[in-house]
Amino acid sequence: MSSELIFLLNTFASFFLTGLIWVVQLVHYPAFHHVSDGTFAQFQKHHVNSIDKIVIPVMVTEITTSFALAWFNGFFSLDAIGFYLVLMIWISTGLFSVPAHSILEDHKDRNAINRLVSTNWIRTILWTIKSGLSFYLLMKMIV
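Structure tokens predicted for DUF1772 domain-containing protein:
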């Protein structure tokens, strides 16, 4: 696989995930507050099962291609910065999002929802920066 194709897959993944995280951040996670207590556990299960089918393959593609680009271009390159941003996204997911979703599996917890919304800004900002970097590198490649 050529480095150009790897870069394009990486850029597509980053753009897709950035768009998705903004929808999740501004619409989906805040809407958790409006789900009734009685149906919340069922809603949470549906959310996790559905979103995982979309997010996991694209996140795996992004981290794999980010690592490959850093490997090919050096771990002190702009591509490496993209890889480090993606690593921070994965760390944030593991430290904040997964634990909050685990709390919400059993019942609606307003504090966990608030934590989910507030800590998700980390991923939202990091993915936005990652997409900005990818866009910059794409424009540099084209010109």
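The CA atoms of residues 45 and 105 lie 7 Å apart.
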